[in-house]
Amino acid sequence: MLRVLKRLGVVLGLLAGLAVSLPAWAHAFPVKSSPQVGASVASAPKQVRIWFDADLNALFSKISVVNSAGQVVSTGGAHVPAGHPRLLETAVKPLPAGQYWVKWSVVARDGHHTEGKFPFHVG
After folding, report:
1. Domain boundaries, given as residue ranges, for the chain
2. CATH 2.60.40.1220 assigned to 28-122
3. What is the mean pLDDT of residues 61-80?
4. What pTM did the predictor assign?
5. What is the per-residue pLDDT across 18-36, written as a single tens digit (0 to 9) for each?
6. What residue ranges in 1-123 does DSSP mark as E strands?
C-alpha cells in the first residue's frame, strides 16, 4: 500500500510540475471599444479605440476605419499608447453621417493573431 501511495505521489507531483510549467497561451480579444460595437452615435468620433484582454505587439497590430464605400477614413495608422499595452487606437477624418466599419488585426505578445471588424453609425 505504501508503494502505491509513493507512486501516486510521484505522478501527482509530475502533473503539478507540468501544469505550472505550461506557458500561458492566449489570443487577444476585444473587451470594449469606443464607439461601441454596432453603436449609433449622434456626433462623429475623432478617434476609434479598442481595448483587448491581452497585451498587444504594437509592431504587428493594425486598425482602420472605412466608410460604406470601402474608403479608408482613419488617419495616422494604428497606435498602441505607451503604458497601455492592451489599447489600440486610430484617429479618423471628420465623418459625415453614415455607416462605418472598424477593421482590426492584432498580434498578442505571445505571438497569436486575431482579427475582426464591427460597424458603427454616425447620425
Report:
1. 28-122
2. yes
3. 95
4. 0.78
5. 344 444 567 899 999 999 9
6. 30-34, 40-41, 47-52, 62-67, 74-79, 87-92, 98-107, 113-122
